[in-house]
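As noted in the main text, all predictions were made from sequence alone. Below is one such record, for phosphoenolpyruvate--glycerone phosphotransferase.
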Amino acid sequence: MVSIVIVSHSLKLAQGLLDLASQVTQGKVNIAIAAGIDDPVNPIGTDAIAVMNAIEEVYSDDGVLVMVDLGSAILSAETALDLMDPIQGQTIKICAAPLVEGCIVASASAASGLSLDAVATEAMNALSAKSQALGQPLRQEEPQRETTATNTNHQELHIFSCTADQPHGLHVRPAAVLAATLRSFNAQIWLAKAGKSVDAKSINKLMSLNIQHNDTLVFSVLGEDAEKVIETLKNTFKSNLI
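Prediction:
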């Protein structure tokens, strides 16, 4: 499983973020922090040795994603990688995602078993759900296009409808579990709510639907594993597995 390292100028910020991420992942992901410096008068800063120690503390062959806030945090993380075994360094990635949102999404993605590259990609897109909810598109972001099920191979389109029973809606943790479950199938899977359809294998796109308790959900599935997907969805929602 991918591990997470939080690098911040502020120890309090990093500790709070660690608490939040640990709650989201229910302690399933190894997360370490490297934050602040050992100076009672001026504790704000970062330390490359502390970053290296944090990476070594949670190192996994599956990879380590290093989340940084700004400025010297990036330099400290890069220096830490230079100090480490080059072979280990191949499975360590410094991520440019926003620290808070990126860390939460990355942690949830790691907990659901995604690869290092997939975890990093989800983290980098962590602002998309918030930007869409507030109607404030990111400058680099292309206008959101509604995704539709396009059947180019004349395959049978399978449909499954259900109601979101989760008391707090499909927030980051259940979205991560659902996306990870669906990624294992050889099929194209879309989830629609109120006429808007998204790729159901993406945590951020699932969250962009802002699914609330009792919302009606419609899954459309195409591909070799379509029937297996439908059965899995039925079992998942019937048994409240997310």
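The CA atoms of residues 22 and 29 lie 7 Å apart. Strands lie at 3-8, 31-35, 64-68, 92-95, 158-163, 188-193, 196-199, 216-222. These features were considered when defining construct boundaries for the mutagenesis experiments described in Section 2.9.
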